[in-house]
Design brief:
Elements: H1 3-6, H2 11-18, E1 30-32, E2 36-38, H3 46-65, H4 81-103, H5 114-149, H6 156-177
Antiparallel strand pairs: 1-2
Helix pairs in contact: 3-4, 5-6
């Protein structure tokens, strides 16, 4: 648009005419009054934004819980290193997702899938309650089956192969590799 045609446009209209393609995270500056400028933020990917906020909240909560855990030294790290590191990684991932949601288009936040969320929560609680009574093998099978029920897309033959692989991997890593004091089987069935 030529300078003569723009003569009567306000600054706001001028910016809109001269920057037609900018409708993203940080849009062109919008003039409010005579001397005040602000940047208008637009969430372009609701799912990533909600997930980012969720990760930030969980990470900050985890850091708050682990705040008093001792860090130890570089040569002898203590119990607070891993929880705090994971908490900061969650916060960082959440920040990256939140910023990405402002920069790139994506799906809007629509309905919430309750079934998977509920079944994953139940599977996690079941693992915590059953691992000492049933042992690692049966507890992993129960919790993985509960999680698999959370989606109608589960292919049960593939799930059975996956479950066997994960149970063997869990026993090898946690029982034999790390020597964790978790029973492998219920007390009456243990041959270890």
């Amino acid at each position: 648009m030529s300078r003569q045609k723009r003569g009567n446009l306000s600054l706001r209209e001028d910016l809109r005419v001269n920057t037609p393609g900018i409708r993203g995270a940080v849009e062109s500056a919008i003039f409010h009054g005579r001397r005040t400028w602000c940047w208008r933020m637009q969430i372009r990917n609701g799912q990533d934004f909600a997930t980012g906020l969720f990760f930030i909240a969980i990470g900050l909560g985890a850091y708050w819980i682990a705040f008093d855990y001792p860090m130890g030294t570089a040569m002898r790290p203590d119990t607070g290193v891993l929880p705090k590191a994971l908490a900061w990684l969650l916060v960082g991932t959440g920040l990256i997702l939140a910023v990405k949601s402002l920069l790139a288009d994506g799906p809007r936040l629509t309905g919430w899938a309750w079934r998977p969320a509920i079944m994953i929560t139940i599977a996690t609680v079941a693992f915590a309650l059953l691992v000492d009574r049933l042992g690692l093998v049966l507890t992993m099978l129960v919790s993985m089956t509960l999680a698999a029920i959370g989606t109608p897309e589960t292919r049960w033959r593939e799930y059975a192969l996956f479950a066997v692989f994960m149970v063997v991997l869990g026993v090898v890593v946690f029982i034999y590799g790390l020597g964790m004091p978790i029973p492998t089987w219920p007390k009456g069935l243990s041959w270890r």
